[in-house]
Sequence to fold (242 residues):
Amino acid sequence: MNSAAALSEQLHPSSFDVARLRSEAKRLRSNDIFLSSAILGLLAGLDKDEAEARKNFSIALQLMPNDYGLRMNYATTLYCINDYAEAREQALRALELIPSHARGLEKALHFCAITGRFGQAEEILGKFSGLRDSEIDRDDHEVALRGTAYLHEHEITEHDVAMLLEAAVSVLRANNAYADNLYIRFMADGESEWMSLHFHLPLPVERVVDLNEQLALGLARMSPRLKADLCVTTLYMTSLVE
Fold:
């Protein structure tokens, strides 16, 4: 399953590699349903086939619920299909199995940070001590340390940030669009500082501009219910290199 998991870490794997692994996984079905389901779930996530991905991972998890690699691969797949909250939960469950796995801590930290669970992110950050083979993302590190204080300062909650994230993902789903990556960062302009959610989309600039306009209209209709929109900006960005 290592080659399939490696593909899931790539933004745009080759169609040849995906097709080859899918063919191999289907041949395995009669002999090793666990491995076959785990690989097919990963590949379905790459294709943004949410139903197929969830179905296959459900089969694999029923067979081996305490497999660390399976849960972490499921978390990666959920991130790929932009179910960020469930990606966080699966990564945290994987860490219960192997608490000091450096790569697992990195993923869990990122998933907690981007979903506004800053308290959990800070707790995970404290577990990196002594792990020499880990590279903590600079933005995740800063958000983990400062996120909770920022929310208190602006009188918003982690739930408010989660609602903002959900609104942004809803616009993407309505347009059958998916983000390659999501980051949460502290931004500065002179003396002003704010928190910002950045969705990186593999779409041309014109399409991203349209999505940002839809998001702005949607958030405006939600105000004043969405308090986080006042101090946490949300932006779709193109990940395509022109």
